[in-house]
Amino acid sequence: MPIRDGDYVLLVGDGVRSVIKVTRGSRVSTIRGVINADSIIGLEYGSTVRTNLGYEIAVLRPLITDMLLERADRVTQVIYPKDAAQIIVSSGIGPGSRVADAGVGSGFMTAMLAYYVRPTGRVYGYDKRDDAIRIARKNLEMLGLLEWVELRLRDVSTEGFLENDLDAVILDMGDPWNAIPNATRALRPDGVLIVYVPTINQVIKVLNTLHEVGYVDVKMVDVTVREWKTEPSEIRPQTWVNAHTGYLIISRRTLRTTTEPAK
Amino acid sequence: MPIRDGDYVLLVGDGVRSVIKVTRGSRVSTIRGVINADSIIGLEYGSTVRTNLGYEIAVLRPLITDMLLERADRVTQVIYPKDAAQIIVSSGIGPGSRVADAGVGSGFMTAMLAYYVRPTGRVYGYDKRDDAIRIARKNLEMLGLLEWVELRLRDVSTEGFLENDLDAVILDMGDPWNAIPNATRALRPDGVLIVYVPTINQVIKVLNTLHEVGYVDVKMVDVTVREWKTEPSEIRPQTWVNAHTGYLIISRRTLRTTTEPAK
Amino acid sequence: MPIRDGDYVLLVGDGVRSVIKVTRGSRVSTIRGVINADSIIGLEYGSTVRTNLGYEIAVLRPLITDMLLERADRVTQVIYPKDAAQIIVSSGIGPGSRVADAGVGSGFMTAMLAYYVRPTGRVYGYDKRDDAIRIARKNLEMLGLLEWVELRLRDVSTEGFLENDLDAVILDMGDPWNAIPNATRALRPDGVLIVYVPTINQVIKVLNTLHEVGYVDVKMVDVTVREWKTEPSEIRPQTWVNAHTGYLIISRRTLRTTTEPAK
Amino acid sequence: MPIRDGDYVLLVGDGVRSVIKVTRGSRVSTIRGVINADSIIGLEYGSTVRTNLGYEIAVLRPLITDMLLERADRVTQVIYPKDAAQIIVSSGIGPGSRVADAGVGSGFMTAMLAYYVRPTGRVYGYDKRDDAIRIARKNLEMLGLLEWVELRLRDVSTEGFLENDLDAVILDMGDPWNAIPNATRALRPDGVLIVYVPTINQVIKVLNTLHEVGYVDVKMVDVTVREWKTEPSEIRPQTWVNAHTGYLIISRRTLRTTTEPAK
Fold it and tell me: Cβ(B125)–Cβ(B132) under 8 Å?
């Protein structure tokens, strides 16, 4: 399928790396010169074009992670793909899963979930901030993933979830311990609860709560994805890396898990 | 749906953590005592049972990673879930993707791929060792994932792949540089090539080859997932961790990528 | 100076790596065969000897870290050289420093301190367990470092330190927050306090206490030293590493730091 | 000993952290207001002063690492304290050691070595660039460490070292493999060779050379010191860290080590 007017494409080459929207009649500026959008339309993905300065740039289909990191709007700190990957795989979330995500923030995690539960699953995204819901909706629309998502403006700690028997609930909020009783109600009896928090103060509160209300198989990990320079003559890790995002705490509900608030 | 004779279940509690197959009339030994399989059959997932010593054990649906790590047979070094997660998400592999995996080894990566390309995608698993193909088939069958996989006893470096226009090809073999020309032929023009190697000697050869034949957007990462002790009174990282598995090299084909062997 | 009867030597070669005491008339067994101690006596350090099976083994002066890791007795969890190195350098401890170390445990940290404050400094090692004091003394004697150390059987939390105006105090104990007021009394007005704890529960208590009593320039680090396989044909990190020992919390006293107990 | 005109002091408090030289009659600007140098002179270290805006700032003796990181001039990439600490401790370098350091660059490693070999050891610093020698001399003078160092403008790969029977030689240069034969000549027969390189391309060349010429007990490590935020209410690792500086390769000479160049 050739590239069409309105498609997003990933441009790569000679230091250029960006996702652009191809709009007939427009010009794309890069650090290696200018490309006419019209010269891209109709090409096969994987083609190369030349900038006006003569540099060769490849035109590729962006991956979902390219779209998120380069095109999505942000209203809050986002969950990075490395953590999303670990959350999804560690929780067994896959095609057909029914998952709640609270709060949605900018919708990065919601989008990754929607991508992986397709075509038969469903994601329920909660946030108490309407700007978050609005931005998340916009991002999901751009990514073509809104079809698999319900977005709900609602405080899950006080008002609860509208679903039950969910396969997994993800809590990404400042005070997740307050939402755990309602998350328990929303989960299937052996469902997976994932809590994502940045500080060890929060870790202690979450682990204490999980212990008290009776979650089992409690695991905690933090994920480091170290990026390398790949120039063949000088291979080495990047000097500066994002060394901390958050702690992932993954546990399982049982029929014995209480929905009473923890002390 | 209640637990049936023949199901696999995850037992968790008081230091017990194992996946067992429920077989009517059998007895399950744990470090906390014995459980009669018959007392599990018919229960809802999320129930708890008592061992003959009085310990409470939860009975849960195993996740795919539990099945792989606890029940799958191994014929070779395997790709761990942490790396599989990163490979899948970094390559945009998802429901509907068509992916080749060479070599399949014990089939861990193949299984993770099959799980995530369901229900409309397909995985083509290659290995030149027939014991690998045999073990992988057995593992995929146990996991209920064989339906989405073609296994092929074939040396991709010398004989090539049978598919083309694939979304992604994963090379997990000792000499992946020798398979890159055939992988290029099998990929769609902007397809994703993932190479997984454990040593830096291999890293250098792979990066040199990718550079010479014209892959673009070459990225390399290594993934560390640090596990923590989650006992609320003594929270700390585990002392000993698996600190190195392999390097993930992810790159994109273009129409300019040559299928000539690198020098 | 040639190797003498009674010296410790490091044997290295073909998979052999151990520190042995050379005792006239004795035989040393290695995984590569036997060496007569008499054939080592009188050699220059750096010489090689042959085992009875024909393997060449180098005979080297052991470093202090070799002696600690291979010959010292252990009565408790020890501070590893990687952490000792970071503690010493981050605290400015060097030749001439006067330092207290509580508790001494097996004396590993005490020994490293003694090695680096020589010849004009002094280390005061405290422990409330007499088996710790006894083992530490034995280890320091073997290492030839006892001359620079005073060992004291005493509970610093309740009985305090006997010194004052110290350059640095190191607290390596289960409840270091209880010893901070006495450590403050023992330090010079701008002295360095180092606290070493394994869990984040302890981290929170220590940081709260330091904050309350008025320590400044509070830093916390954890140190990872990743070891690699160095076989030229297969260079890669070791698979299993000791990924967590403890957190180092380093801060400075001032004249405003209170010696009242924290709330 | 009170603070005198001309001393360096470390100012710490309310977000201020800097090393300044106290000069009678001068004013020190901080982000929390101005301090008159004269109000610092005569104070005891550990005192606090107030800025004109009323903030309390502690006045401390700077540690050697504070001086290096805040006051030393840089002409090249420097060896960081974390790596210097590991090099020194892993090599048994301490009071009395005789060590060569090539090249000296900005003199950071040379300074750390001088600090730790005092008062009876000696450091021989080599560089082929005269600006490096000049800057290193200036830094060592500022630190009061020049007394223990000989600086030599000389290319050790082609001209060799002037010493022999050294306890340790440190090679921190782009092509250390070319200097290994001369380093071997300069070391005592069981001396310690430390090579510090940033890329894995260099790692492979160094390990191959060490293997060919017969170094033993070859170890390689990389050191990560993760810094944390220490605000008691929000304890977490710093987000961005310097994740890669270089690889440390530490090995031992023997009498069998050849000084012929490697193939």
Answer: no
A165 DSSP 8-state letter: S
Q: Cβ of A138 under 8 Å from any chain B Cβ?
A: no
CB pairs under 8 A between B and C: 51
At A152, give phi and psi (nearest 5°).
-135, 125
pLDDT tens figures, C90-125 = 999 999 999 999 999 999 999 999 999 999 999 999
Asked if C8-62 and C65-252 have one fold, the answer is no
Closest to D197 measured CA to CA, from D128, D62, D103: D103
| Structural contact between residues A67 and A142, judged by C-beta atoms closer than 8 angstroms | yes
Find chain D residues with C-beta within 8 A of A231's C-beta: none
**B3, B7, B228: best to mutate for the A interface, most A CBs within 10 A:** B228
What's the gap between Cα A86 and its chain centre? 11
Does D31 contact C at CB distance below 8 Å? no
Name residue C231's amino acid.
E
Hey, are the CB atoms on C204 and A203 less than 8 Å from each other?
Answer: no
What Rg do the C-alpha atoms of chain C give, in angstroms?
21
Work out whether strand D166-171 and strand D98-102 pair parallel, antiparallel, or are unpaired: parallel
Read off the pLDDT of residues A44-77 as tens digits, 9 standing for 90 and up. Answer: 999 999 999 999 999 999 999 999 999 999 988 8
Distance from CA of D239 to the nearest CA of C (A): 13
Beta strand A98-102 with A56-60: parallel, antiparallel or unpaired?
unpaired
pLDDT of residue A78: 87
Chain A contact present for B196, CB below 8 A: no
D201 chain-B contacts, CB cut-off 8 A: 204
> What is the 3-class SS of chain D, one letter each residue?
CCCCCCCEEEEEECCEEEEEECCCCCEEEECCEEEEHHHCCCCCCCCEEECCCCCEEEEECCCHHHHHHHHCCCCCCCCCHHHHHHHHHHCCCCCCCEEEEECCCCCHHHHHHHHHHCCCCEEEEEECCHHHHHHHHHHHHHHCCHHHEEEEECCHHHHCCCCCCEEEEEECCCCHHHHHHHHHHHEEEEEEEEEEECCHHHHHHHHHHHHHHCCEEEEEEEEEEEEEECCCCCCEECCEEECCCCEEEEEECCCCCCCCCCC
For residue A194, what is the enclosing H or E element? strand A187-197
Write the ipTM: 0.96
Smallest Cβ–Cβ distance between A60 and the set B88, B190, B211 belongs to: B190
From chain A, pick out residues whose CB is under 8 angstroms from the CB of B186: none
Note whether B243 contacts C244, CB cutoff 8 Å.
no
Domain residue spans in chain A? 8-62, 65-252
Res. D78 pLDDT band, cuts 50 70 90? confident
Query: Do D237 and A226 lie within an 8 Å CB cutoff?
Result: no
Can you give the pTM of this predicted structure? 0.94
Distance in angstroms (rounded) separating the CA atoms of residues D50 and A23: 60
What does R_g of chain A's alpha carbons equal in angstroms?
21
CATH of domain D8-62: 3.10.330.20
Interface of B with D in 147-166 (CB under 8 A): none
Q: What is the pLDDT of residues D55-65, one digit of tens each?
A: 999 999 999 99
CATH topology of domain D65-252: Rossmann fold (3.40.50)
